[in-house]
């Protein structure tokens, strides 16, 4: 089991997860502020949050597949 975690660390999946969380949080905060100003329908913010949530596992899979190590 520890080999899985070491492989995740080697492929920098943890970094992608942390970066995605920070950026997604910021986008949700901005979207929650901006969308009502433009009188967007209520469902637009829900779709925005769901799209960000669906993108999280996709980002992790892509981080695993495209190992972006420099060495």
How would you sum up this structure in a few lines?
The chain is mainly α and 71 residues long. It is 82% helix and 0% strand.
Topology:
Blueprint: H1 2-10, H2 13-37, H3 42-65
Instruction: Tell me, rounded to a whole number, the average pLDDT.
Output: 86
**Structural shape:** elongated
Q: Main beta sheet: strand number and arrangement?
A: none
State Rg.
16 Å
Share of helix among residues? Answer: over 70%
Gap from first CA to last CA? 25 Å
What structural class do the secondary elements suggest?
mainly alpha
Can you offer a commentary on this structure?
There is one protein chain. The chain has 71 residues and is mainly alpha-helical. Helices cover 82% and strands 0% of the residues. It has 3 helices and no strands. The protein has helices spanning 2-10, 13-37, 42-65. The longest helix has 25 residues, at 13-37. The protein is elongated and about 50 Å long. It starts with a helix and ends in a 6-residue tail after the last helix.
Descriptive labels:
mainly alpha; about 70 residues
């Amino acid at each position: 089991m520890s080999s899985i975690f070491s492989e995740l660390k080697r492929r920098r999946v943890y970094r992608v997860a942390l970066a995605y969380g920070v950026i997604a949080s910021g986008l949700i905060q901005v979207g929650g502020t901006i969308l009502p100003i433009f009188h967007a329908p209520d469902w637009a913010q829900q779709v925005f949050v769901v799209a960000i949530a669906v993108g999280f596992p996709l980002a992790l899979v892509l981080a695993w597949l495209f190992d972006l190590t420099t060495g």
